[in-house]
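Subject: Interface between my chains keeps coming out wrong

I've been trying for a while to get a sensible model of this assembly. When I model each chain on its own everything looks fine, but I need the whole thing in one frame so I can look at the contacts. Pasting all components below, labels as-is. Any help appreciated, I'm running out of ideas.
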Amino acid sequence: MLKPKLISQVLQQATTGGVKATILLNPEGSLLAFAAQSDRDARIYGAIASNIWTIYSKHCKPEVGPLSFLMLECEEGKVAITVVSTMILCLVARDDVELGILKAKCEALTRHLEEPLSRVAGY
Amino acid sequence: METGINNILAKLTESEGVIGVLIADEHGLCLGARGIAKASSAGFIASIATHARELTEMKGRSDSKEDTPTISVEYGNSTILIRSEGNHTLAVWKS
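Reply #2:
Try treating it as a single job with all components included. I did that and got this:
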């Protein structure tokens, strides 16, 4: 139904050119799959990203619609967070990575993972 | 994943007279910049292209490829050529 190893390989494809970590989380913030230099980094990035996403989601007014994309410029890097099916996708990149590239990578991954993850989300 | 864009940017930068290249997406976010082009100008570049397209559409013509405007910004001894194709805008700085 869903091959976890393949998901990691897909995430790995986006973890190039200054992207330090690509993480897929469930809505509770638990890691589903990731491509990062270390497990520790992925867990930390994942926990922070999930927290930020949840806080912003809660403060989205109904008339504006649900939160679909978040981009953050931090002191030492850039972060993009989006939703794929019911899961959260997070990309952490170096400061020199352009925001457009980060967004394009997020969209490419979303297109690729949306259909298989939506099948799993039903269970 | 970004190899294609990097190759295009590198190829354009090597062209004669080109001193800078920038590609922006439809939101004005920079996809890549080389030479004297600054990533922070991606928003302005995309905005100029959008406004130019709106001006040409005012003529009531169809939005065929031939109608996509190319904008030339001349200053000093240099020129910036801006053209929007699909969701992306390309800007080339020429000396």
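Reply #3:
Confirming on my end. The domain at 2-94 of chain B is CATH 3.30.450.30 (Beta-Lactamase).
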